[in-house]
Amino acid sequence: MSLHLTSRQSDILEFIRARVARDGQSPTLEEIGRAMGLPHVSAVLKHVRSLEAKGRLAIEPNRARGKPLFSESRIERSLRVSRWLFRLRPDYLVRVVGDSMRDEGILDQDLVGVHATPVARHGQVVAARVGGDRFTIKRLYWQGEVIRLLPNSPGYQPIDPDPTEDFAIEGLFAGLLRGG
Question: What's the helix, strand, coil split of the chain in %, to 5?
Fold first, then answer.
């Protein structure tokens, strides 16, 4: 399979990215189809699966499109930081509670920059929402239908998202600030 995107796949990927940036969540297959002039969801799904196979996005079947966890009441403070401090452009910072990613260099009370996107690949460190209201930073293990969130410190168990509960990749680890 070629990793090159067709013109249609590029258009679909750009539409998904724009909707995530605007709405904070990915569009439905039906919404993609309407925007791209594709009347059949099966045609949209074929393109989306091709994008997944080419490593450009992650499909989470039968997952609810939940609202973001963030609200004004949870904002600790606002900071202005140089985006050059991060590998990816962070959209927000979250304070780490715990040391399950200590061996990854992510410590309790660090501020982790998160690049908001529902798109992630196997092996990336992600920010994920589990069970509707828990937020965690873990390494994504994703092989076929198996999704696990792996800690990187002794004594911690992987998180296996329950298929009946809300689960979403909220973003990618972009870097961190220590002592914030």
Answer: 25, 25, 50
Residue recorded with tokens 């908001």: 116
Q: Pick the catalytic residue: 2, 10, 54, 100?
A: 100
Count of domains for the chain: 2
Which pTM was predicted?
Answer: 0.59
7 in active site: no
Select which of 7, 82, 138, 153 is catalytic.
138
Q: Are residues 49 and 132 in the same domain?
A: no
Residues 20 and 78 placed together within one structural domain of the fold: no
Q: What is the CATH number of the domain that holds 149?
A: 2.10.109.10
**Segment 82-102, tens digit of pLDDT:** 777 888 888 888 889 999 999
Q: Please say whether the beta carbons of 128 and 170 come within 8 A.
A: yes
Is position 54 annotated as part of the catalytic site? Answer: no
Of the candidates 32, 174, 40, 33, the residue with the CA atom closest to the CA atom of residue 112 = 174
Place of tokens 């410590």: 107
Stated as kind and residue range, the H or E segment containing 111 is strand 111-116
